Amino acid sequence: MAWNEPGGKGNPNDPWGNNNRGNNNRGGGGQPPDLDEALKQLLDKLNSMFGGKGSGGGNNKDNGSGGFGGLFAIAGAILIVLLGFNSVYTLDETERGVVLRLGEYSATENPGLRFKIPMVDQVIPVNTTGVREVEVKERMLTEDENIVEIELSVQYRVSDPVAYALRVESPERTLVAAAESALRHEVGSTEMDQILTVGRNLLADQVQLRLQDYLDRYQTGMVLNTVNIKDARPPSQVKASFDDVQKAKQDKDRFISESEAYANSVVPEARGRAQRQLEEASAYKEQVIARAEGQAARFNDLLAEYRKAPKVMRERLYIDAISDVYTQSSKVLVDVDGGNNMMYLPLDQLMKAMPSSQAASGSGQLTSSDISRLTDQVLEEVRSRQSSTTTTTRREGR
To answer: At what angle do helices 239-308 and 310-328 cross, to 10 degrees?
Structure first.
């Protein structure tokens, strides 16, 4: 029979000990046990476990006090265990603990196993070695009244855990607001072309300096590692027009560079030609002066020699003049004394027929030996013609 089955007699399996209560109830067995009696039995068992006395040997007053004493003992033991667990905490190598005692700053703990007073001390762990990052994306107005969209990345670490945990209510929100303010200030004093092209790094450096000044004045306990402008671009609504403007500027720069390159190639060349002409003119001037001075000195020397032997010098000068004439002409006409016709001397043909050192040397000028031989040939030809002319005249006279 199950313990909760109804019956006329008590069930020995009833855990509530209602073996005899069912007969005393009006409705017979099957009635639920009394709650007060069940509670007393539970207290008796707990008291016996902790060394107390049961409720069967004493009156009701002693039973109640014993039950409550057991509850207090259990609660005290649980409380002691909980306090023991809450009084010990651990900080790793990257953290520092800011201890608040009754809400007031007490100390800063280093890494390791630490103790605190439960319910009195509060520990705020702060990571002081890890590098954290926040991003800012804003649309701002530049100095030349253009709008740009900028994405800013800020990396920082905590240098003062006390200031980071206590001075500012929300450090990261404060950092984001300060970064927006610093960025807006620098962008508002910079032209759009500088932000989008070569001035991006300079802008990031200026934002970092200004932002660090803000954080120091706010006493946030944060130190910036790097500030980087990830992207800077015009708004998407005007991107097509902006691309056209940028292309026009690039064409302008390209044309300027090409013109400068052309000027750099033409101007030095022209200067070189001018310098060469100046040097050639200077050389020609010196050559003419030197030649004139040489001719004057030669004339003075010839004059001195002419005064010593005029006849010899006249013949020498005549021969030199004839030599100069012969070197400049390939045909000579000779007027023979006593004749009616002129004698034609083809010097070029005579030179071809005459073996000379000129043909061997391959030069284009006559040597002195060539001139002498040519002169001898001319004189021979003159004499032969004169003799033939004289013979003809005598025959005609007879």
So the answer is: 140
Encoded tokens for 112: 């390791």
Cα dist from 290 to 172, 283, 293, 304, whole Å: 91, 10, 5, 21
Residues of the chain with pLDDT under 70: 1-36, 38-39, 42-43, 45-70, 84-85, 326, 329-368, 370-372, 374-375, 378, 381-382, 385-386, 388-398
Q: Which CATH superfamily hosts domain 132-234?
A: Band 7 domain (3.30.479.30)
Which of 331, 312, 319 shows the shortest CA–CA distance to 371? 319
Q: State which H helix or E strand residue 23 sits in.
A: helix 21-24
The string of pLDDT tens digits covering residues 312-345 is 888 888 888 877 776 776 666 666 666 566 666 6
Give the up-direction half-sphere exposure of residue 392: CA atoms within 13 A in the CB hemisphere. 9
Residue with tokens 């004189």: 379
The answer to whether the predicted template modeling score (pTM) of the entire model surpasses 0.85 is no
HSE toward the beta carbon, residue 161, CA cutoff 13 A: 20
**Which sequence spans correspond to the domains of the chain?**
34-84, 89-127, 132-234, 329-397
